[in-house]
Write a structure and sequence with these properties.
Transferase(Phosphotransferase), domain 1; five-stranded antiparallel β-sheet; 2 domains; two-stranded antiparallel ribbon
Length: 234
Amino acid sequence: MALVDTLVSDAVSETVEQRLRAIRIRASASNEPIVIEHLPAPLRLLGSGTDAVVVQHPGLPEQAFKVYAPQTVGCLADEYHAYQRLGGSPYFAACLGHGAFYLVLSYEAGPTLYECLVRGIPVPARAMADVEAARAYARSVGLHPKDVHLKNVLLQGDRARILDVSKYVAPGDEDRVWDHLAEGYRRFYPVIRGRRIPVWVIEMVKRRYKAQPKEQFSLDLFGAKMLRVLALRP
C-alpha cells in the first residue's frame, strides 16, 4: 500500500513518496541510535530511534511518516498490526496507512516526557495515569506493551499519548522500565518538578540504571543515590 489516496492528491503523494525514498538511514546491530546519512528537503525530522526515523512533509502537516532502515524494515509489519489492534484508542497515535518501508501516522504535537525534564515542564499525574491506561488497553486487545519510556510518550496539555508500538506484538514479559519510571515519579519526582534537568544528567541516570543488576534492583536505593549525586534531597 502506498500513501492513502483518499488522504492526499496524486501529485503530493508522488512527491512525498520520492522524498521518502531518498532518505538514507542505517541501523546498527547493537541497538544504538539510528545513523542518518541523508534527509532530503523539505522533510523535517521529528524524531529517531534505533529502528526508524519519523519525518514530516510541509504539504501534509497533519501526518507523520515513520521510515524504517533497510536493516529493520522487517519490524514494520508488526507495528502496523499493533496499530490495527489498537484501533481508534485515544492513547496512541493513529496509523493511516503504510508503504513498503514506512508507516503513515497522525502527526501528534507536544513535548516528549524527556523534553519535559530538559525544559522544566511539569508532568501532571493525569498524564502518567494515561500511560497506565494505555498499557492496560493494549493488553486487553492481545498486545504486550514494551519499550514505553520518556522519549515515546508525548505530553498534550495534561494528557499523554504514546507514539511507538513496534514492540507490542512480540509475546513475552513486559519490561519494567515504565513501572520503575512510574514509581520514581510518585516517589522522587516532587523533588525535581519544574526544574530543568541537563541532558547529561538524564543520560547518566539512564546509564547507571541499565547497569543495575535486575535481580537485586531497589528503586528506593537507586533513587536516593541519584538524588545524592544531584545534591538533592527526597
